[in-house]
Amino acid sequence: MAALIYQIFSSSTLVSLGVYHIVNTFRGFLKSPRDYIAKPFHPLPAAFSAHFPLRLLPLYLTGASLLLAFVHQILVSADADPLLKGHTPVHLFTSLQSAGVLFLFLILSLLLLLSESSSLLLFPSDLFFALASAFFYLSYAVSSAQAAVQTSGLQAKCDSLSARISALSSLLSLILAINPRLFIADVGLAASVCLQGLWALQTGLSLYVEAFIPEGCHRLLDVVSGVEGSTKCELEESRLRAVALLDLAFVVHVVFVMLLLFLLYAAVAKSVGVSRRFGTYEPLPTNADTNHVQLKTLSGTQA
Asked: Is-contact 44 59, C-beta < 8 A?
């Protein structure tokens, strides 16, 4: 149960963070397309937060969530691990690796908080995105390593797909570090965070909830939930079927995120009051009287 609660907590945090960033990115772009530049953090509008500390509430919540996730990984690393490969406690090492990645993101969020709340520390956006790219790539490496040592094919598939999302986030962060005016990359990064949150929920359901565990697979009662191999498929045919179902679920989540992007864009465009126009060019204002005078001048000259 603890493992499922952690997955739900991670999912809600990542999805909320991604949606918040998507909405603010759309709003900033639609208000001023020419002046748009990617930002690591969007404070709450003044209408929702009269006091300055409340404007940084999303950063406080992000830091608190990362701290809780870090503590959780440290605590679960001490769980009994009856499934060993040779003489190596796999679960202990993989949990500590995940805790290390979370700690790096926690430090990054604290640096951003200090930069936003005071003038003592200047934290450029390109440096933030460069560090985020490195940390996302480290997350990709850790998830790939976890998938390689898993004794459960089902959990290995979940970890490998999570690693691919982290690799995408790393690439998009690197692009923003090089060119922060690339609107598509900024939206894609926030969308990848949403996708990672949805996949965390799918992982929890597929591994720890009996109703969602694929047919032919089951949980091992003598293994703590969250320890590698706690959910296994006995037959190779069942394992292949479960992997195919996870691939299908992943595609469904990608489609859902794309639909969410379209809906959020339409909602933000309506709230901002943006009318349909071609690209980022706006028609120049016309003056009927000026045009009339110019036409009379031209006709007089021709005469």
From this structure: no
CA angle 181, 185, 186 (to 5 degrees): 75
At how many degrees (to 10) do helices 236-272 and 2-31 cross? 30
**Tokens representing residue 131 in the block:** 């560090």
| CA atoms of 27 and 5, how far apart (whole Å) | 33
| pLDDT tens-digit readout, 201-223 | 999 988 888 888 888 787 765 55
Q: How far is CA 182 from CA 38, 64, 161, 178, in A?
A: 7, 30, 26, 9
User: Is the CB of residue 151 less than 8 Å from the CB of residue 85?
Assistant: yes
Whether 228 and 91 have beta carbons less than 8 Å apart is answered as yes
CA distance 17 to 74: 23
pLDDT of residue 227: 52
Question: Which pLDDT band holds residue 99 (cuts at 50, 70, 90)?
Answer: very high
pTM value is: 0.83
pLDDT given at position 299: 47
**CA–CA–CA angle 62, 163, 139 (5° rounding):** 50
